[in-house]
Specification:
Elements: H1 2-28, H2 44-63, H3 82-90
Length: 97
């Protein structure tokens, strides 16, 4: 039984050391050989093409008419028959005793 206790204690100690250091490594250091955020050089043709695409997207977006926002958040929930709801709204302020 002594051997099992020693093995469990070593395993617990290794886990206590490995888990915090693994999370710290994941937060701070990028993996070797791979650069995060490294920009590759862009040729003038690629830059002109990207600018043309951006301009086309802005022009297309400006042709879309502005949508009038609905002020009724329950519009999709209510029934489409407005006659029945009109009768309820007339009696909504009155209390019956």
């Amino acid at each position: 039984m002594k051997r099992q206790d020693f093995f469990a204690a070593c395993l617990a100690a290794a886990a206590m050391i490995a888990l915090p250091s693994a999370s710290a490594m994941a937060q701070g250091m990028p993996t070797p050989g791979f650069q995060f955020g490294a920009a590759k050089p862009v040729s003038p043709e690629e830059k002109a093409r990207a600018e043309a695409l951006e301009k086309a997207a802005r022009d297309a977006q400006s042709t879309v008419p502005a949508q009038k926002a609905s002020n009724d958040p329950w519009a999709n929930v209510r029934a489409s028959d407005s006659g029945a709801s009109g009768k309820k709204s007339k009696n909504a302020g009155k209390s019956v005793h």
